[in-house]
Amino acid sequence: HLKHKAGSELVAVLLSEEDGKLALVIGVSKLLSANLSAGELMRDVSETFGARGGGRPDMAQGGGVLASESEALQQHVTDWITKSLEQLP
């Protein structure tokens, strides 16, 4: 719903915590998904934080990151998105 409502340029990252672990959902608008893949970001998070997950260029989900790593995860995701946006043509 967020992706359709926001228009052509959107990257949405949603985090939730349950039982000391984080769940992560990443959505990228179709316009951006050719150059900024939600699935690639989720793979990077999985490798960096030992999470499990995956997805498509426009939508990915995963979890298993310890809640104590929430700030580090948020910074990592922000940095990854910023770097990817800077490389857009």
What does this structure look like?
Helices cover 43% and strands 31% of the residues. A 4-stranded antiparallel beta sheet has the order 1-2-4-3. By secondary structure, it is an alpha+beta fold. The chain is globular.
Strand order in the sheet with the most strands: 1-2-4-3
- What is the SS-derived class? alpha+beta
* Main sheet: strands, sense, barrel: 4 strands, antiparallel
What percent strand? 25-35%
Please summarize what this structure is:
With 89 residues, the chain is α+β, with helices and mostly antiparallel strands. The protein has helices at 2-6, 30-33, 38-49, 70-86; strands at 11-18, 21-28, 52-55, 59-66.
Relevant terms:
alpha+beta; 89 residues; 4 helices; four-stranded antiparallel beta sheet; 43% helix
